Amino acid sequence: MNVMGFLSSSKDRLVENMAPSLLNKSLLKPYGRIVGLKLNSGDKALEVTLELKGEREWVLIDIQEYELIREDGRCFIIIKKASTSREWLTALAEKLAIGKRLEVPAEAAKILSQFL
To answer: Which SS3 state, helix, strand or coil, does residue 96 take?
Structure first.
């Protein structure tokens, strides 16, 4: 692994450790919590495992390609390709999220801007 790869990997591990706690206390609090997060910023890929209220099994969201955009002090994500462990949720994501410009919550954007 070269130096840039090492730095990217180190930043990814920091986000993996910091983001779940922040998101669990804010955005996800009414719905459940992140129990696992794997980030590969070099490949623009993200895998999130969620324990959602009312679900017996964890839900996996696999984002195979994303783009982060910073504009006027705000951060947006465009999910270009994704799938989930629930067929209905994948269909919903395709309709409402994939290809759309989604604003990242301000608290999460602060952390992301430091590491990504």
So the answer is: helix
